[in-house]
Amino acid sequence: MALPKKKLQGLVAATVTPMTETGEINFCVISQYVDYLVNEQGVKNIFVNGSTGEGLSLSVPERRQLAEEWVTKGQNKMDHVIIHVGALSLKDSQELAQHAAEIGADGIAVIAPFFFKPVNKDALIAFLKEVAAAAPEVPFYYYHIPALTGVKIRAEELLDGIQDEIPTFQGLKFSDVDLLDFGQCVDQNSQRQFDLLFGVDEQLLSALAMGATGAVGSTYNYLGKKTNQMLEAFERQDLSLALNYQLYIQRFMNYVIKLGLGVAQTKTIITLVSGIQMGPPRLPLQKASKEFTLNAEAKLKSLESHCFH
Q1: What span, in angstroms and rounded, lies between the C-alpha atoms of 85 and 80?
Q2: Taking 50 as the threshold, does the pLDDT of residue 1 lie above it?
Q3: Which Gene3D superfamilies match (predicted)?
């Protein structure tokens, strides 16, 4: 089994998928997007084709092509390119996993199937095991997001004995607000070198205190620099400053969540901050309103004048 070239830690940006106004993938801006994340946000890890990336709204050929583009453009610039290969069809997931291995992805992640749902841990493990086996040399991550999948199997329960079934299991993307469950994932696996990545950006400081080794999220596309400063403050045990950064992030998140924050709005915010046109989402999602765009821009500008000390 191939080991990760370096431990996956720190921030992992859940990338959006740039699209044209007609809903086709805009591959032309991926190179610029990579440079922006690395140079402007200080983020060198990415999670591709997940929820934020509209992965489940893309066809299998599109997901393959997009994965190739990110791996190619991220070469020698990104530390980790993790490809989400989850799908409703086991065969699609296996094809995407095998492809990710072929193109040299640094890891694969899988969401629980959410139409025909696994009814218990054994059923979910059986599905994940078959996907992981299609890429037997690639670190494997489970993507836990019960609010979207409706699969309520606790992550703590899933992790118990998982490496016996899936030898390539490397960690978890935990996108839930249940800090008891997350804390138990940390506590009960302290002897294993799992990457326990938290996925609720506005609560990251709480998860760091619980023992998170990193974080995967959409806001690291545009608040990566600020979040990295929070991580640095936490590492120095300057909890007061770390809290100031978390509250700064929360002020913006609280504001846009009230306006209605989804993939379309996230694309708009990244476009505002990066200057790279991310385009609209694919149907059935609707593009962000002009009102949202103006309000988000004004809020970002007002926060920029905020002083931390």
Answers
A1: 15
A2: no
A3: Aldolase class I
